[in-house]
Amino acid sequence: MEKKNQIYEGKAKILFETDSSDHLIQYFKDDATAFNAQKKGTINQKGVFNNKISTRIFEYLQAEGIPTHYEKTLSDREMLVKKVEIVPIEVIIRNVAAGSLCRLLNLEEGMKLKVPILDFCYKKDSLNDPLISEYHIRALGWATDEEVEEIKKYVFKINDLMKKFFLDINLDLIDFKVEFGRFKGKIILADEISPDTCRLWEVGTGKKMDKDRFRKDLGNVEEAYQEVLNRVVK
User: Fold this and answer.
1) Residue 15: pLDDT over 90
2) What is the pTM of this model?
């Protein structure tokens, strides 16, 4: 498909129109941000890594019955996706205590949770993506009751599928963030799934293999992303 005008640029990706009204080209950048863009930098080849990792995971999830915006990979940095109306909600699943959950509840990092925690956040950088409840979503009209239930159904299935997927390549899925959109009246998974949006710890060593290496200045960021890619596509 022909790439046309740029219509959006976010922290990690750029979207371009195509000659199809139903499709966009999603371009993955090397820019890195943390703490709602308070920390900024570049991770060399991050866009390439995340495009290829997202491709593999979207293909896996689609084969397991999860509808996604993914159509096909066009190049090292470009993916053809369905043009969705993004639901302005970030959906987070937590399997192990880490990050903001530890800060919020004074928990020890690495504590395994008895059941997964589902968090909703309002997707608004200027407000630091505040934590919200289902009541906010319904009251403010961001999604219908049926859409909320559909999102919950999908995200717990995604969690089960991805925990197995990553465990098979010796990685623990600690937590992850996903976004959903509407396409022709249906809720589908959108955005990306990568070390930018997942916490991944190596089984046995606990080595962080995700964007926490950038957030916490742990070093070897590019190497960690490359290693995740190598495991995902082997």
Assistant:
1) yes
2) 0.96
How far are the Cα atoms of 20, 33, 47, 74 from residue 70, in angstroms, in the given order? Answer: 15, 24, 16, 11
pLDDT digits (tens, 9 = 90+) for 43-66: 999 999 999 999 999 999 999 999
Question: Helix or strand or coil: residue 124?
Answer: coil
pLDDT tens per residue across span 87-140:
999 999 999 999 999 999 999 999 999 999 999 999 998 999 999 999 999 999
Question: Three-state SS for 28?
Answer: strand
Residues 59-96 have pLDDT tens digits of 999 999 999 999 999 999 999 999 999 999 999 999 99
Q: Cβ distance 122 to 129 under 8 Å? A: yes
* Coil/strand/helix, residue 223: helix
DSSP string, 69-88: SEEEE-SSSEEEEE--EE-S
Distances (CA, A) of 207 to 80, 220, 221, 228: 33, 11, 12, 12
* Length in residues, the chain: 234
pLDDT for 234: 81
Closest by alpha carbon to 26, among 216, 223, 226, 191?
Answer: 191
Locate CATH 3.30.200.20 in the chain. 3-82
CA distances from 217 to 54, 110, 193, 208, 221 (A): 24, 19, 22, 12, 9
Q: Which fold has domain 86-220?
A: D-amino Acid Aminotransferase; Chain A, domain 1 (3.30.470)
